[in-house]
Specification:
Blueprint: E1 2-5, H1 21-31, H2 33-47, H3 51-57, E2 59-60, E3 68-69, H4 72-91, H5 93-100, H6 102-121, H7 126-154, H8 160-164, H9 166-185, H10 192-200, H11 203-211, H12 219-226, H13 228-237, H14 240-259, H15 262-275, H16 280-308, H17 311-335, H18 340-359, H19 361-372, H20 378-404, H21 416-433, H22 442-450, H23 465-477, E4 487-490, H24 492-502
Parallel strand pairs: 1-4
Antiparallel strand pairs: 2-3
Helix pairs in contact: 1-7, 2-7, 2-9, 2-10, 2-15, 4-7, 4-20, 5-6, 5-20, 6-7, 6-10, 6-11, 7-20, 9-10, 9-16, 14-19, 14-20, 14-21, 15-16, 15-18, 15-20, 16-18, 17-18, 17-19, 17-21, 18-19
Length: 503
């Protein structure tokens, strides 16, 4: 019996998660890299309202709940230097991945994450804190880039969305962990109140570094580096005329993470609640609620992508619901500023927004961004796109205090008007330009872009890649397979294995 790919137009067998449990486990281990980002973002957002932290790095201010204020410049830098560091590392991630691979990049990232955390724990100097934030940002850029690329290349086509969406799963687990720990330490009035949450950031890189010992390098990376015939086939399918479209789509999808307003609420939600009238204690508690709802949203989104909705629909629904949540926050602050009703609206719609973001755009953006790019340029394009995302996130983190800080423009929740409009623009982008990629192998996606299939016809267009693979196998064997001979249908992962053995 000869194992051959299923012919075009037929349906590839979709094996269960249980049958792919080893691949899922490996991807889950690699995806823990993203937990570091969740922990760090939540911890740093919480420290800005923590009396013990502000006693060291802030200034006394009896007008503010908790008795301490924070300088706007310090607030801007500790929030934005993380994304600046991630921008710097992710922009070089493609070159690093090309020469050294995904696993080596993750090991380097683990070292930088530990170093950055240690620097922040051991100092009371703001300048040193800035340096630590930059270092940990560089590590986070590598962690996010390489973990998502690895999962995209390792996962079967029909499970890729679930496995790459583990990014959001681990980010939210990290966010919940960070929020809970900060809630427990915020009552301390000494340095341990912030040193303990910062120390938690040792956990992820240490465990990940150990786990990577048992994780193989990306099979597609190894194929591209050592299997010339497979590389030739990839080059043959790719044409320059489709690469620019795919690059722009990848950049656009990653940019919508910032365009959704997520970075504003991730970076400043706890502080934002305090300046909007909540006590410090209540702000920390609602922060836990918000991150828990976000975690639930991730799992809801994964079920929707796996069983009910395509990537395009998920992204469009996400933009609409996120925009409405932001609009509701802004309207309540305009109609009834400073009232209990406006404060309750802020709490409710912030939590609802985090659920919607994590269920839709937050869940689907990385699967889509890693699928839409060409096989040959995946490391370079995804790395550059993520660097753009971090640059936009840095810009948001740097500019947001000008809008929300009482010492500056003092817009408060009215700032959400900007992000509501941005979400609706993102929705239009998804509707007009984003193709449906669900259920397609990476090679099929390459072919569809090469053929210039429009976004609206991606789902219905039949591909020829399986026929071409079958013909090449037959040519190598030097004979034609009898059409009446028993045939075993295999998925794309098995096809690659067969092709590798043939070489």
């Amino acid at each position: 019996m000869v194992a051959i790919p299923k012919l075009a137009g037929a349906h590839l067998p979709e094996t269960s998660l249980w049958k792919n449990r080893k691949c899922l486990l490996i991807c889950a281990v690699v995806a823990t890299a993203n937990m570091q980002y969740g922990v760090d973002s939540t911890v740093m957002a919480s420290l800005q309202a923590m009396p013990g932290f502000l006693a060291v790095f802030g200034h006394p201010d009896p007008k503010v709940a908790g008795g301490y204020g924070i300088d706007r410049t310090f607030q801007q830098l500790i929030g934005s230097l993380l994304t600046l560091g991630a921008f710097l590392s992710s922009i070089f991630a493609g070159a690093f991945a090309h020469f050294f691979g995904r696993r080596q990049g993750l090991w380097v990232a683990c070292f930088l994450a530990v170093l950055g955390s240690a620097i922040q724990i051991g100092t009371t100097d703001k300048g040193v804190v800035y340096f630590g934030r930059l270092i940990i940002g560089i590590g986070n850029g590598f962690l996010v880039t390489f973990s998502n690329i690895y999962c995209a290349e390792a996962a079967p086509a029909h499970l890729r969305a679930v496995m790459v969406a583990l990014f959001s799963e681990w980010v939210n687990i990290g966010s919940v962990l960070g929020a809970v720990i900060c809630n427990q330490t915020q009552i301390r009035l000494d340095k341990s109140s912030y040193q303990i949450p910062l120390g938690v950031q040792f956990i992820v890189p240490v465990l990940l570094a150990i786990g990577l010992v048992f994780v193989p390098e990306s099979p597609r990376y190894l194929l591209n580096k050592g299997k010339e015939e497979q590389a030739r086939r990839s080059f043959k399918m790719l044409r320059g005329r489709s690469d620019l479209r795919r690059t722009l789509l990848c950049f656009g999808v990653i940019a919508t993470q910032t365009g959704s307003g997520s970075w504003f609420l991730i970076s400043y939600s706890t502080y934002f609640m305090v300046v909007s009238g909540l006590t410090v204690s209540d702000a920390f508690k609602y922060s836990i609620m918000k991150t828990c709802l976000g975690f639930i949203g991730v799992n809801v989104g994964m079920v929707l992508m796996r069983h009910f909705l395509g990537r395009r629909s998920v992204m469009m629904i996400g933009s609409a619901t996120q925009g409405l949540c932001q609009l509701a926050m802004a309207i309540s602050a305009t109609v009834a500023p400073g009232t209990l009703a406006a404060r309750n609206c802020l709490i409710a719609f912030t939590a609802l927004y985090m659920f919607c973001y994590n269920a839709f755009v937050g869940d689907a953006s990385y699967p889509v961004a890693t699928e839409v790019v060409s096989t040959r340029l995946r490391s370079w394009t995804v790395g550059a796109a993520i660097s753009l995302g971090y640059f936009l996130a840095w810009l948001t983190g740097f500019c947001s205090p000008y809008f929300i800080n009482p010492d500056a423009m003092n817009w408060g929740a009215k700032y959400a008007y900007i992000w509501a409009g941005s979400n609706f623009i993102c929705g239009i982008f998804f509707f007009l330009f984003l193709p449906e990629l669900k259920g397609r192998t990476l090679e099929e996606i390459d072919e569809l872009f090469e053929r210039g299939a429009s976004a609206w016809k991606f789902k219905s267009t039949k591909t020829n890649i399986m026929n071409e693979a079958l013909r090449e196998v037959q040519e190598k064997e030097g004979h034609l397979i009898d059409s009446k001979a028993p045939v075993e249908l295999v998925d794309s992962a098995s096809t690659e294995k067969v092709a590798s053995k043939e070489e």
